[in-house]
Amino acid sequence: MTIPIPAEDPRHVPNRAVIDPAAITQNTRALGTLLEEQTALMAVVKADGYGHGMLTAARAAIEGGATWLGVAHPASALALARAGLDAQILCWLYEPHTAKIVLPEVLSAGVDVAVGSMDMLALVSAAAREADRRARVHLKIDTGMGRNGVLPWQVREIGAAMREDDFIQVTAAWTHLTSADEVDDPATDQQVEIFDSCVRALEDEVGPIPLQHLANSAATLTRPDLHRDIVRPGIALYGYPPVPADIALRPAMTLTSSLALVKEVPEGQSIGYGRIHRTSRATRLGLVPIGYADGLHRAASDRIEVLVRTESGDRRVPQVGRISMDQIVVDLGPDSTARPGDKVVLFGDAGGEPDAPSAPTAEHWARAAGTIPYEVLTSVSGRVTRRVLS
């Protein structure tokens, strides 16, 4: 028997991930300015909208001009479909057990599905027959990622199988670029060459392919020649371009907490597990009740700053010592006026005065932890309450 564990009452926990849908809308509009009129924008809202809330992100992106929504799992697609959003939905990742349970209802709801193997085609075909509805299929072609997708020499075989199946409608061909965020890497052009060759082979089997899509956030920003019929931005929607961008993008998540304790310590005070940090002078330390169980990356320990808001103003201060499961320590400085209860911004938009210090970003945390902003955003755990701005 499964026993549900009640969530912590958000009134009793100070940690918040504040989500600004207006930022997602603004970012979507900005990305749309890069597209030709015939190119649609698919907002990728998988992983619960990169931690921002799937439905929140989807609605905001649609307001900004997105006409497609992309998610990994069929259950996510079904939740989007049930929400009655004005957008076409694509999902692309499922295994046999999930497919048998969910895909018939997904197809009945009009959701498009990706196929990346003969086995996946069989699952979709069976679900379409059960739903008594023709499946709109996007054939995923593996042009070098080595994950989901048919290999180039399998395209004709699967194309012939789809042509002969009355419950399959080939709607699109697509692939995933491995290195579009490295603008000088020749791998992208090599993948495009393979993709185009495969599309020609597929069209020999099934006729004209209505839609093609290749461009992720990086290619949307840097490769207009790859926009084709649909672009699929993900991380850029949430304010973090994976490559330098000429358009303004605004982070949509702000992670906050508050000081639980402030204390004076002498020079040489060790801090945290492993004693990796000792104070270089007498100072005031602040304890913040948020840690790696909330999504902070332990690898960023002693390498990141946070913003503390006090009555005398905002100040960027270093996090010191190891990041613990439930708490971090910050060095407030010997002259700090900070008190328990003062707000702490871990990353995002501090919303202070124009000349006040800015808060760190998810990019700062990513660099400190040796990872990427995608992981920082999606790591913010379920025990951190999301507050959506109106």
TrEMBL record:
A Pfam family assignment: Ala_racemase_N
UniProt: substrate binding residues: 147, 325
The UniProt record lists the keyword Transferase: no
Described purpose of this protein according to its UniProt entry: Catalyzes the interconversion of L-alanine and D-alanine. May also act on other amino acids.
Broad enzyme group: isomerase
SUPFAM superfamilies to which the protein is assigned, alphabetical: Alanine racemase C-terminal domain-like, PLP-binding barrel
Annotated keywords: Isomerase, Pyridoxal phosphate
Reactions catalysed, as given in the entry: L-alanine = D-alanine
SMART domains reported for this sequence: Ala_racemase_C (SM01005)
GO biological process: D-alanine biosynthetic process; peptidoglycan biosynthetic process
Name of this protein: Alanine racemase
GO molecular function, one term: alanine racemase activity
Cofactors required: pyridoxal 5'-phosphate
Similarity comment: Belongs to the alanine racemase family.
Residue list for modification N6-(pyridoxal phosphate)lysine: 46
Residues annotated as catalytic: 46 (proton acceptor), 273 (proton acceptor)
EC number: 5.1.1.1
